[in-house]
């Protein structure tokens, strides 16, 4: 059985007076894509933010590569997470609007002090998926379209090899052709042994990219298994998600 790179055991998260996660158990196997699915408000984004220590787990434990990184008495900071090889792409993209595309990428490339030190081959590989970033390389990121900002957010996360990617709805706002490019990018990252935990509302995207799946409802994981098996079972999809993948292809 594939070793887990990320594990959450009985994780609870409170945000102010609100109890959002109610004992999340989640296993993210190494060198594969795990889809985190569920209705709006199920707790998916809170799970990603809890892993990144942006919100503190009030109970349970988050472990990365066998070492505790989150939970009562254990909290690794988000910058330390980045140094461990974990990258997070939030739904709000988290780009720097006043900086150029080039400057945004350079900030994310920890090994490069200037653009000349960027990995040219990897940058061209990214441009192959997201050509708009090359076109607007010197433009302020704030002037990009919503879809282009989403491309930039993902590009920032993958400008250097990462051990784990946490990505919240990467296809949101993208044209169909760019969605396909995004799918191709994640497949190639997986083939390069990157572990990915991916929240996505585009169910065809989930079917094409995912190896494993966890479905959340009301702050808990209510189903975990093989993505292909879920994609082939319309009845299970409807019961867990309220609709079938086949109606969204």
UniProtKB/TrEMBL annotation:
Q: Which residues form the ABC transporter domain?
A: 6-243
Keyword Ubl conjugation carried by entry: no
Task: Output the Pfam families linked to this UniProt entry.
Answer: ABC_tran
Could you provide one GO biological process annotation from this protein's UniProt record? L-amino acid transport
Tree of life domain = Bacteria
Known Gene3D superfamilies for this protein?
A: P-loop containing nucleotide triphosphate hydrolases (3.40.50.300)
Keywords from the named record: Amino-acid transport, ATP-binding, Cell membrane, Membrane, Nucleotide-binding, Transport
An example of a GO molecular function for this protein is: ATP binding
Q: Which PANTHER family match?
A: ABC TRANSPORTER ATP-BINDING PROTEIN, HIGH-AFFINITY BRANCHED-CHAIN AMINO ACID TRANSPORT ATP-BINDING PROTEIN LIVF
Question: Which family does the record claim for this protein?
Answer: Belongs to the ABC transporter superfamily.
Identification of the protein by name: High-affinity branched-chain amino acid transport ATP-binding protein LivF
